[in-house]
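Thread: quick sanity check before group meeting

JM: Hey all, I'm pulling together slides for Thursday and realized we never actually wrote out the predicted structure for the chain we discussed last week. Dropping the sequence here so it's in one place. If anyone has concerns about the input, flag it before I start.
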Amino acid sequence: MDVINTPSARKADAPGNRDQVKVTHRVLDLNLFDPDVAQFCALAVMTKAPRAGQVKTRLVPPLTLAEAAQLNACFLRDTADAITEATSHIARGIAVYTPVGAEEMYSDILPRDFELLSQRGNGFGERLAAASEDLLQIGFGSVCLIDSDSPMVSSKIYAKAARLLSVQGDRIVLGPADDGGYYLIGLKKNHRRLFEEIDWSTHDVLKQTVERAAELNLAVEFLPVSYDVDDRTTLRRVCEELLGENARSTINIAPATRTFLRGIIEREGRERIWPHP
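JM (edit): ok, ran it. Output follows.
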């Protein structure tokens, strides 16, 4: 059994302050309808097991393959902790993961109250559509599908998404990314059309999704704009926001990512991952 640090303990600076507990996360069963979750929004982060060479490869270089996987785990840890801070009487945290068989990798990343759901489908759009369908089938009243590449999104934004979906009437919620995509899509019904004929990984994803919503006569609520960390430019950006002159304004955001990046800089110098202008 692996060991997980609780969210509060992970934010402590001194290793001696960390309260370690053993955790096995429950994998949701699609065959078990749960009427008790109808009042909840599933805040579901889409994740691929953080194995070296299989995640965040566009950050190599300046990172090594192992460092890219470790940073990916930090992103997920920060996102999951923000989701946990946002969850209360209206939301629950879920990790929609791949591949099957990688469940134990999440035991030292996800908070104790998270549950797991395996991904299915071939392409990215199919996997998003399947995740929303599966979570609604289990009984959740609404679903937010969240990327694991945007550690700067705060718990307040996730809480706002859940609140918007708790209001009567069908709608979708979108968290725009400044590259033309989105870091979050929230919905209350199984609208597969939202994920069809989308040019994934392009600047047109958000625009095309809004077009699909219009076809379905769905109102669209927008969250604040954020960004994915997936290349040298956005790596420098997150370093600036977490470690730069104005880092105090982000002091409560992305602690695991901050600690990891600071460690590289302290060991090897700033120029390796965050060169001066």
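AS: nice. Helices lie at 7-10, 65-86, 124-138, 155-166, 205-215, 232-243, 255-268. The longest strand covers residues 41-48.
JM: adding both to the slides.
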